[in-house]
Amino acid sequence: MNVFRLAGDMTHLSSILVLLLKIHTIKSCAGISLKTQELYALVFITRYLDIFDRFTSIYNFLMKLIFLGSSLSIVWYMRRHKAVHRSYDKDQDTFRYQFIVLPCLLLALVINHKLTFKEVMWTFSLYLEAVAILPQLVLLQRTRNIDNLTGQYVFLLGAYRALYLLNWVYRYFTEPGFVRWITWIAGLVQTLLYADFFYYYILSWKNNVKLELPA
Amino acid sequence: KPMESFKDEL
């Protein structure tokens, strides 16, 4: 565990807390893509299939539980909670799951470390996480007024990915034989998807104006 | 190195 990895996890956790804060206290999920949230829930379910039979540390175990629980509760809120559900921009959140899920599944079946169920599911979760933000980015682009919490949520998610890249660079130089092509390429693709958003987010922050993405 | 050790990240 290095400082980049820990900072990355904490940023990831903060992004989820910001989203839960918005949903739980303001009772609003305006500007949040349910499709992205459901894809993240699927990411955690398929990645942590080994949660009960492969123990690495208390820290990992608890974080896995937190990620699973929070992602499922966000989906529950957006689908089942009346007030929250009413604020959901359903008509704008039109990205199709199959365009994301099927290619990731096929890729995981072809490019993996071992052709077993758990291994393919784990690889699938990496590919899926890389592109799961797409419905959210599409929704952001369609939303005229991006509120602060939504902007912060996406910014924190992007920052988490950037910190994980630094973590891998650090591990590459400090742990002999640390090479993980699948994780790295999926992570790099994921981080690049945020580049455009980052650019406009920092611009709006610098000029102290409301965040708005060009159409 | 066994592939299992790849999974110490979240």
TrEMBL record, chain A:
Pfam (any one): ER_lumen_recept
Membrane-spanning residues: 55-77, 97-115, 121-140, 152-170, 182-202
Keywords linked to the UniProt accession: Endoplasmic reticulum, ER-Golgi transport, Membrane, Protein transport, Receptor, Signal, Transmembrane, Transmembrane helix, Transport
Signal peptide: 1-31
One GO BP annotation of this record: protein retention in ER lumen
Organism: Cucumis sativus (Cucumber)
This protein's record includes keyword Signal: yes
Main location: endoplasmic reticulum
GO cellular component: cis-Golgi network; endoplasmic reticulum; endoplasmic reticulum membrane
Record protein name field: ER lumen protein-retaining receptor
Membrane topology field: Multi-pass membrane protein
Assigned protein family: Belongs to the ERD2 family.
Glycosyltransferase listed as a keyword: no
Cell compartments where the protein resides: Endoplasmic reticulum membrane
Single GO molecular function: ER retention sequence binding
